[in-house]
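Subject: for your reference before the review

Hello V.,

The reviewers asked for a structural picture of the protein, and I figured it would be easier to keep everything in one thread rather than splitting it across files. Below is the amino acid sequence we used in the manuscript, unchanged from the supplementary table.
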Amino acid sequence: MKFDVIVIGAGLAGLVATAELADAGKKVLLLDQEPENSIGGQAWWSFGGLFLVNSPEQKRLGIKDSVELAWQDWLGTAGFDRDDDEDFWAKKWAEAYVRFAAGEKREWLHKQGVRFFPVVGWAERGGYLAEGHGNSVPRFHIVWGTGPGIVKPFETRIRSAITKGLVEYKPRHQVDELIIENGRVIGTRGFVLVPSNANRGEATSREIIGDFEYFAHAVMVTSGGIGANHELVRENWPARLGNPPKNMISGVPEHVDGRMIGISQKAGGRLVNKDRMWHYTEGIKNWNPIWKDHGIRILPGPSSIWIDAKGQRFPAPNFPGFDTLGTLEAIQKTGFDYSWFILTEKIIEKEFALSGSEQNPDLTGKSIKEVLKRVLPGPTAPVKAFMDKGEDFVIANNLADLVNGMNKITKSNLLNLEIIQRQIEARDREIENRFTKDLQITALRGARNYIGDKLIRVAPPHKILDPKNGPLIAVRLNIVTRKTLGGLQTDLSGRVLTASGNPLPGLYAAGEVTGFGGGGVHGYRSLEGTFLGGCIFTGRETGRAIAKELYSN
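And here is what came back from the structure prediction:
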């Protein structure tokens, strides 16, 4: 055969696997339906956060972390409850991944040129007991260069392998079928799509100009999830999160449609944990969209007042940045698919960041000079652009005008000034003492005991309605689709399993299409910083496993 391995999907998992296979001397065909300038997939668009345990960055900030603490947090967050079936391999992948994150992950990436922003972020803070959901300590390590910075070393390795004749990369090749002979996957069939000069993330034509058929000793699927396929998201929406949203915005481009999941299933692969998914509650509509229904997620600090569509404050621990799916459940059970932040200029200038490489040009461009501007008064330039141009923002000098503007956005009179004013005034009274029964205020004061939060992430506690902290700002928050937590079930070698629990010969998978490992490494919830890392780890381990198997044969 001309090829040892066919890899379907040029996202991060596919790039990592291809690089590992090529380094092992294997001949790889890398197929992707999008144009070449989309190499790197969703990883390129990401904020570049990676989950690391007991890292040098943590130690320098006085954070005491350990494998034991990280595993405690992972189990409390995942809530694995299908241990003998759908979670069996997912839990094994989770154990291996936590060891990787506490072990060679950072050093391995560092040797390839990956560097990290010195302040470690504290994502998914939980708000429950010690064994419940959330990170006990900050673990969100931002790659210097964000998403493009994590894609670059693997793309570089592949470009080098292409020049050596070890990799053939064919964009605009859409796989439609896995070829099976005598019960073994031996290749792929599909269609060649018309060349496209579309910019990264833009919709591309599905016009067919030819077909193809390729064969190999092994086929590996690394095609991503279903985030842009809203129909499929709603179809798999779990009842525990309430009714599926009627209105959603997309955190991923249109081509993230889950096609290869169905194709792999048809070939005999087992799909598990379909009801597990990860969507954000703090989505805003992009004023300058690249793809259809383009949504951006706010990465909030803990101080904003979070209210539902009728103006009622969400109960503890549904605070900004604490429990994504817990708050999603609370929002959906209101009967509306949006909610609101109310905050001050002092809060937005310190606590608002926007997810995505394109929304963080200072970090993406590796500009120390621009990063230092974040400590200056006022919001960052991307946040300010949304304040000025985004349809979800209201800015006012008093609460009455703010509430009036919020009602205008939704073309309703759901929000009552007196109800909102009463709640915020009550909250503001709790600021007067350094001790309080308001758990959100207790939490934000506790967060400021961490030097990273105090310096750049959490505003000093202050009264929302005090004019000196203004103007007041309201932000309508939409549900923004993002990650698929279930997927093709795989063993620790990345072999796709069948309904009988046995490997489907010749077929492997990695990345989001496997729920980031084993069919759902995160269980029900994520600790964040674990999606890119899951693609890296599953791509690496599966690539190495295939190379080893081909060598032994």
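For the response letter, the relevant points are probably these. The radius of gyration is 23 Å. The chain is about 35% helix and 20% strand.

Happy to draft the paragraph if you're swamped.

O.
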